[in-house]
Amino acid sequence: MSEHLEVLKTYKIYVGGNFPRTESGRYYKVFDSEGDLLANACLCSRKDVRDAVKTARGAFNGWASRNAYNRGQILYRIAEMLEGRRAEFEKQLSRIGFTKAEAESDVNTSIDRLIYYAGWTDKYQQVFGSVNPVASAHFNFSILEPTGVTGIFAPENSPLLGLVSVIAPVIAGGNVCVVLASQAYPTLSILFAEVLNSSDVPGGVVNILTGKKEELAEHFSSHMDVNALLYTDALNTDMKKMIDENASLNVKRIVKKNIEDWYSDKSQDPYLLLDFQETKTTWHPVGF
Amino acid sequence: MNLTDFTTSVPIDHVAVEERVSRLNKRSIKKGSKVQALKLALSMMDLTTLEGKDSPGKVIQLCQKAKKPYAAMPDIPTVAAVCVYPNMVKVAKDHLKGSGIHVASVATAFPSGMAPLSVRIDDTKFAVEQGADEVDMVISRGAFLAGEFNLVFDEIAAIKEACGKAHLKVILETGELHTYENVRKASDLAMQAGGDFIKTSTGKISPAATQPVTLVMLEAIRDYYYKTGKKIGMKPAGGIRTAKQALQYLVLVKETLGAEWLNNELFRFGASSLANDVLMQIVKQETGQYQSPDYFSID
Question: Using one digit for the tens of pLDDT, what is the confidence trace for A170-210?
């Protein structure tokens, strides 16, 4: 037998349940904490955003109409799969500078967070929905419906826990998303895509792109078929202004959350789920 | 003119047809030429509704869309025609009066054609009396596949006569003809029997229009033109949903028949959902922003 040569993984993007390369053919180098080359990641373009949004839109009705219990099962399943592949995640986290203990607790908390939102899937409707008192012979109630296709700029410095923490509340509420991964640490996001892909999450519900926010923010924010945009890192004034202006075109919901500590209570909150819900109020006539 | 001997096949090189299509599909059409092509595609469209649940309301809505495809852009072209069942022709005709948009009607016991010839002729006459400018007929595929070419030929000729001044489009229903040879043969037959247009499909059978089948039909049209000097029109229908596909079809036409065929007198798209995608792409080109179906009328 000849000596085994290590087979390195090609990190591609995750769109519609597949792992294509960027249509642009471009890539950028990703380094580990020692400054050694870790991977070549796809440098996504405008057209990748377009394709991902189209795919996400196609998956929306199916996902939104899954019953709450089923969405909970699937989120729980993601947690199970992540648990099964924790060694790989811990190894990858340690490559980018996490200590053994930090890596372990990052994975632990990510798993817990998925289960936390899995639990919320069949409860948020009761907590946030309402029966409203009205002064006429109507039964008046408000229920929540998912906002739709959500763009997400994943946190730059928390490539696993931060990523999980922004995706989970969005999909738990029946939305679909197109995520732009951490630019410096995209490998974790693609590893997580592999977990999603083996967790009964229908293709297109979560799509993960890698690349530069400066290039893609314009396309995320101006796309008329993107209904909401979530980001947690501070953006420079120009980009923020551009995003706000573009969002006005289709009255896109822009959600900015100031979260730096992904272990804090703020980062695990049913109100994050509520941010991506629209309220529908119904007046139903009743006789007495 | 001597008729083709329909019992002998025109040989078709399957691999070459598909290869040529895939090569032509790689043409990149951008910016100014893209907008021009998209607007052309819109002007070639037969907006179609052929459902059992069609109502006057639905047809009126479609006519409004035909006249004004996108209210925010009044300068974009109208579509070529509205295509409906015979009993909806009058409704469409009334609502398109003065717009220059034609009313096309499917007839001859569409989509199967499984009715006596007399019934199919009456169906055609009814559509024409109601005001149809164009008639889309179906051929008897069963008879064609059984080799009864004379019968099919005579039927088309009889329907052509019943059409009077109305243009006749002959639907070959290529999804049921199985081979490119049959498609070619049916195209030759339909043109020689008097069809003004040849059309791929009813839209009720899968596969509907495909690009290789369209290429075979376009080549039949080209050969017929060389032989007789008569220009026959082409209408792919069914399954064309995206602006990108529409542009690919236009490239096929341009490369096979030339720019003379690039107008709605000689080329049509039979489609219903294509219009919105073409509109969305036109708006994208004008504004720079990718569009959402949420902001376009449902037809």
Answer: 999 999 999 999 999 999 999 999 999 999 999 999 999 99
Q: Which amino acid is at A242?
A: M
**Which chain B residues have a beta carbon less than 8 Å from that of A250?**
292, 294-295
> What tokens appear for A108 in the block?
């632990």
Considering only CB atoms, B291 lies closest to which of A219, A224, A246, namely A224
Tokens found for residue B189: 């037959």
What residues contact residue A87 under an 8 Å CB cut-off, 6+ apart? none
**Sign of the dihedral through C-alpha B256, B258, B262, B267:** negative
Q: How far is CA A273 from CA A97, A108, A177, B194, in A?
A: 31, 21, 13, 65
DSSP state of A136: S
Rg for chain B, CA atoms, rounded: 19
> Minimal Cα distance from A50: which residue of B?
B290
Structure tokens at A32: 């580990």
The number of residues in chain B equals 299
**By CA distance, what is A249's nearest residue in B?**
B289
Q: Which of residues 59-98 of B touch A (CB under 8 A)?
A: none
CA B161 to chain centre: 21
B84-132: pLDDT as tens digits? 999 999 999 999 999 999 999 999 999 999 999 999 999 999 999 999 9
B155-B266-B41 Cα angle (round to 5): 125
Report whether B251 contacts B24 (CB < 8 A): yes
Q: A27-262+271-285, what's its fold?
A: Aldehyde Dehydrogenase; Chain A, domain 1 (3.40.605)
| Residues of B annotated as part of the active site | 136, 199, 235
Fold classification of B14-286 is: TIM Barrel (3.20.20)
* Secondary structure element (H or E) that encloses residue B240, with its range: none
